[in-house]
Amino acid sequence: MVTIHAVALDDPVAATLWAEQQAELFARYGEPDADADFALEMPADALVTSLVAVDENDAPVGTGLLRWSPFDSGAGSAEVKRLYVRPQFRGNGTAREIMAAIEEAAARAGAVRLVLETGVEQPEALALYESLGYDRIEPYGEYMDDPRSVCFGKSLPTRVLVVNGSIGAGKTKTAGAVFDVLAERGVRCAMIDGDYLCQASPDAPGAAFNQGLFFQNLAAVAPVYRAAGYGVMVIARVVEDPDDRARYSSAFASDAGPAEVRIVRVTAPERERKDRIVQRDLEPEWQQWGHARTVELHESLEALQLDDAVVTNSGRLPMATAAEILEKLGW
Predict the structure, then answer these.
(1) Which residues contact 177 (CB under 8 A, 6 or more apart)?
(2) What pTM was computed for the model?
(3) d(CA 29, CA 133)
(4) Same domain, 125 and 207
(5) Integer angstrom CA distances of residue 74 from 78, 177, 191, 228, 234
(6) Among residues 232, 249, 236, which one has the least CA distance to residue 163?
(7) E strands within 72-204?
(8) Which of 227, 249, 284, 307 has the fewest beta carbons under 10 Å from its own?
(9) Overall number of domains in the chain
(10) What span, in angstroms and rounded, lies between the C-alpha atoms of 42 and 188?
């Protein structure tokens, strides 16, 4: 049983483990790694995570690192480096645990693809990556002309966060704040105000509130975001249909499979929701409609309970609500 910690790029324990790995690679290949000094040359914002695994006695047993790929390996690609387990600790699944932590960090950072390099003199590494679902890809970077190099890639599902809520609950501002928080953390993310994907007059035939048009448009733009390397999508939109979660998952499906969808609902007291509707400077007839609709919709959403979490968005700034949402989701 190991515990995996995130550490700084200059962590001395990680550096010791890297040196051990480099010595082992030199013994196998008879020359230094072509990218042996990458950590000294890497910009700080290129690091996604550096990990150290320790045993129950807090003794270091292994390491792994993830950086944004500096090579032409596709937008949103992150590269796995320095996966290493000390020989006496091998055969217990430690490398798999480190790789699982790396993949989780990549997904949280909004990566759409993982790439890595190993070599023909490391059969155990080749077997590990293949067993974890990695496919062989064309060599890249320093390894393009090395016949002993073997490169792998693996696509990651898009992660979608839908901010749900009644009219006046603040779902659009909250979604914008969630996007801002994620962007400040360096996450590759994008935000869509769902209402703007279905504004049309007269209404399109089919589902109420132009839901059919909305999901058609969403499916059309999803590959564009994916190709640009955005692995996290934040969407503001009412979720009033139990099948919508599957529709989002399908709209953002990729070669990695269906998207991972989380739905969070923001709430606020009725009086506050109605005041917000008035503050939007809507015409009186729209204020009247909005006041009736916010009550009806709030009751509907309360009854449906389609959300992974519910967060109160009252008496505080949107950034505070956004921070609570991300904490509750573990994002």
Answers:
(1) 317, 318, 319, 321, 322
(2) 0.94
(3) 26
(4) no
(5) 9, 28, 21, 9, 22
(6) 236
(7) 77-85, 113-119, 135-137, 149-155, 159-164, 189-193
(8) 284
(9) 2
(10) 19
pLDDT of residue 207: 72
For 172-225, what is each residue's pLDDT tens digit? 999 999 999 999 999 999 999 999 999 898 988 877 888 999 999 999 999 999
Q: If we measure between CA atoms, which residue out of 189, 172, 214 comes closest to residue 322?
A: 172
Clarify whether residues 213 and 241 are in a common domain: yes
Q: pLDDT tens digit string along 133-174?
A: 999 999 998 888 889 999 999 999 999 999 999 999 999 999
Q: Which secondary structure element, helix H or strand E, spans residue 324, and what is its range? A: helix 318-329
Which two structure tokens, joined as six digits, stand for 149? 């190099």
**Token pair for 98:** 């480190």
Take residue 311 and report the two structure tokens written for it. Answer: 């967060």
Which among 95, 84, 83, 81 is positioned nearest to 42, based on CA atoms?
81
The domain boundary, picked from 155, 171, 189, lies at 155
Do 90 and 163 fall within a single domain? no
Provide DSSP, 252-298. Answer: T-BTTBSPEEEEEEEE--HHHHHHHHHHTT--HHHHHHHHHHHHHHH
Residue 69, CA distances (Å) to 34, 122, 130, 229 in order: 15, 22, 21, 12
Q: Is 329 helix (H, G, I), strand (E, B) or coil?
A: helix
Amino acid sitting at position 69 = S
Residue recorded with tokens 């009751």:
299
Domain final residue pick, 155, 181, 213: 155
* Cβ 175 vs Cβ 149: under 8 Å: no
pLDDT reported for residue 283: 85
Question: 3-state secondary structure string, 214-259?
Answer: HHHHHHHHHHHHHHCCCCEEEEECCCCCCCHHHHHHHHCCECCECC
CA distance 210 to 198: 6
Residue 21: name the closest of 10, 40, 4, 35 by CA.
35
